[in-house]
Amino acid sequence: ASTLGAAAAQSGRYFGTAISAGRLGDSQYTTIASREFNMVTAENEMKIDATEPNRGQFNFTNGDRVYNWAVQNGKRVRGHTLAWHGQQPGWMQSLSGSSLRQAMIDHINGVMSHYKGKIYAWDVVNEAFADGNSGGRRDSNLQRTGNDWIEVAFRTARAADPAAKLCYNDYNIDNWTWAKTQGVYNMVRDFKQRGVPIDCVGLQSHFNGNSPYNSNYRTTISSFAALGVDVQITELDIQGGSPQTYAAVTNDCLAVPRCAGITVWGVRDQDSWLGAGASPLLFNGGNKKPAYDAVLNAL
Ligand code: XIL
């Protein structure tokens, strides 16, 4: 196959990208994105601050722009993200306790009902675990509503849209030996044992000097999969853009049947949240980088 999406489809997988609504008028960007990818994640447009800027007043203008572009171009959509400490609107940041808990539930219901039946997988909860050696939860206003906030989010999400796969998504859970990875693994195992609805784990996989790719990544993917969930690589970027590392990530996903697909966090280096200087993606302007060829050959 001659595109990332078609090559991934040969093994029943997808290859996606983050899309930002503000770039949909850039024809170089849309030409590459339309040609190469078959899954789309809105980079910011389905987050809490974008979709519920005032409590109880939902705004899907930009989320729908990304969604409609994706579907009109034959792509599926991952939803990102419903419950997160980041990019909360001011009104939510100021809530706590039972009113915040209810606002989280209402937010999940409001967004998921708008997109009901249209989303391949939702990142229901994003980045809830702490960095460092604790293996425990990150402190946040949501965590302070009670340790059960994550399972409440997943149960709410299942009821709101039974057709969507429900994912837990995080960064720095790629290295199997890290405490954060083990913390998330233990939560997913507990959820599966107790029947809390969860279908997938999203490995963001932002690789850089402080959190480099490690060859135990394949063990991480297969270990999560063995719990009975899909694994999705959800926000891949590699600082420096090493073709060898991009190939290794791709090979590790292909080695595990339940690794469902890979999404890169942007189209061209200039689109990356890390800045073009990091050279983290697969395209430089309109050109395919060596990392692109490495991925395509590995798929
Ligand atoms: C980033 C976006 O790429 C930026 O445009 C925005 O300013 C901040 O958020 N983990 C996530 C993503 O789950 O939502 C983040 O996206 C990158 C880290």
Description:
One of its GO terms (molecular function) is endo-1,4-beta-xylanase activity. This is Beta-xylanase. Belongs to the glycosyl hydrolase 10 (cellulase F) family. Its EC number is 3.2.1.8. It catalyses: Endohydrolysis of (1->4)-beta-D-xylosidic linkages in xylans. With 299 residues, this protein is of the alpha/beta class. It contains 11 helices and 11 strands. The strands form 2 sheets. An 8-stranded parallel β-barrel has the order 1-2-3-4-5-6-8-9, surrounded by 5 helices. A two-stranded antiparallel sheet has the order 10-11. The protein is globular, with a radius of gyration of 18 Å. The model has no long low-confidence stretch (mean pLDDT 98). (3S,4R)-3-hydroxy-2-oxopiperidin-4-yl beta-D-xylopyranoside (XIL) binds next to loops.
Brief overview, please?
The protein is α/β, with parallel strands linked by helices. Helix content is 38%, strand content 18%. The protein is built from eleven helices and eleven strands.
